């Protein structure tokens, strides 16, 4: 018998989870059946999207999150012992899976052999953030060489990857950040052409300066008034991938008060914009995306920056690090518990 430890939702929260809003419990796992395999988590993610799913999470459910886990026992030939998977198993140490999409979250995906690269990339550039950016840019935005792309939430894990893929495709890339430190990181280290500090810069003036011929594509991580301003500066037949609405994640009132929603229809109609919201779970060809991102990493075209925090018990501190305006890293928690 294997005992799993997991965080479950004790009560709904309004900003980022506190220790009293989650509860650490134990779960005895049954023996494996045919087609199943057992994994042990090694790295867990803390991501902004967790807040978006909080209102629809049930009290008592395992707290949402992605992880890289090692297969320790298997009765499934497609998931052999010793290999690593990336999946949305949540904040738990051990999980039994049959390798199939359970309807709520995507099926676990085997990570490729990484050589000297860290396996922790499976919760970042080779995991859900990387796959999300890959499909949002290439399938929805479909950028062409010479076009101008704006990325909001540009210093987030998804935002940094999305911007770099747009650069690979030959775009001029403008990143919107929450601080100059983040802006200098994405321009000096990741190759973005320009950044705009949403907290102190005049967004309208700088959009007109950096994109004098208008914006062709927009990868939207934040929503709200920032996105309204970007839409106003888009060209006819512009493409928009709506990945998140981070500007509203920490404000329960604005998340559900549609009377306060910015007016975007004039820009959509007049400029005939194609706007598509998406969840990465809609895509089935994750392996292709992961292998392509890996190739770009190996070539040096995709860069990453990780902050590893030791110990399952430090999940809450990891959230605080992720939420800092100065943060330029993918914040990752290394397990097992107490180490």
Automatic annotation (TrEMBL):
Report a single Gene Ontology molecular function.
15-oxoprostaglandin 13-reductase [NAD(P)+] activity
Q: What Pfam families does the record point to? A: ADH_N_2, ADH_zinc_N
Top EC class of this enzyme: oxidoreductase
Occurrences of domain Oxidoreductase N-terminal (ranges): 5-99
Which Enzyme Commission numbers does its entry carry?
1.3.1.48
Q: Which reaction does it catalyse?
A: 13,14-dihydro-15-oxo-PGF2alpha + NADP(+) = 15-oxoprostaglandin F2alpha + NADPH + H(+); 13,14-dihydro-15-oxo-prostaglandin F1alpha + NADP(+) = 15-oxoprostaglandin F1alpha + NADPH + H(+); 13,14-dihydro-15-oxo-prostaglandin E1 + NADP(+) = 15-oxoprostaglandin E1 + NADPH + H(+)
What's a single GO BP term from this record? prostaglandin metabolic process
**Boundaries of every Alcohol dehydrogenase-like C-terminal domain copy:** 158-290
Which UniProt keywords are given for this protein, alphabetically ordered? Oxidoreductase
Q: InterPro entries under this entry? A: ADH-like_C (IPR013149), ADH_N_2 (IPR041694), GroES-like_sf (IPR011032), MDR_fam (IPR045010), NAD(P)-bd_dom_sf (IPR036291)
Looking at the keywords, is Translocase present?
A: no
Q: Which family does it belong to?
A: Belongs to the NADP-dependent oxidoreductase L4BD family.
Under the heading PANTHER family, the entry gives: PROSTAGLANDIN REDUCTASE (PTHR43205), PROSTAGLANDIN REDUCTASE 1 (PTHR43205:SF7)
What name has this protein been given in UniProt?
Answer: 15-oxoprostaglandin 13-reductase
- Naturally occurring in which organism (per UniProt): Agrilus planipennis
What gene codes for this chain?
A: LOC108739457
